[in-house]
Amino acid sequence: MALNDDIALLSIVPLFADIDDEKLRLVAFGAERRRLVRGQQLFREGAPADCAYAVAAGRLALTRATASGGIETIANVGRGTLLSELAMISLVERKFTATAEVETEVIRITRPLFHRMLEEYPDVAALVDKRIRDNLNAMIRRVGKLAPRFL
């Protein structure tokens, strides 16, 4: 795909929404494309995460191991989904396994590439910081609603 296609993809990823094309060009130019065939794993639960992936085409099943030793599907995701966004900021562990359900293409965004964008565009750093904080607060609210079930 062309650089402009990658910029268009990044512009629909919620974390990068409202960031202008010139700034997204840096990420699109430095990102790596990867193709997966049906059934191929992109990454495994528990592995160290050094990058995020934006789904460019296709569909991924996100699964995780259960306490009883089984596997549960937690989501099926497609174009525009960003997986492991916190891995662009610091070393984290993959919380699930991502497996291609059909032929799938992803864009790999490494931590150094993301940090370079934040360093070159401080206004983007502030926007991304706000979006990540908003995402974390929404997650905390969802978990808070579940708390009564465990008391």
From TrEMBL:
A Pfam family of the record is cNMP_binding
Cyclic nucleotide-binding domain: residues covered: 15-118
Matching CDD domains, A to Z? CAP_ED (cd00038)
Q: Which InterPro entries match?
A: cNMP-bd_dom (IPR000595), cNMP-bd_dom_sf (IPR018490), RmlC-like_jellyroll (IPR014710)
**From which domain of life does this come?**
Bacteria
Q: What is this protein called?
A: Cyclic nucleotide-binding domain-containing protein
Its lineage opens with: Bacteria, Pseudomonadati, Pseudomonadota, Alphaproteobacteria, Hyphomicrobiales
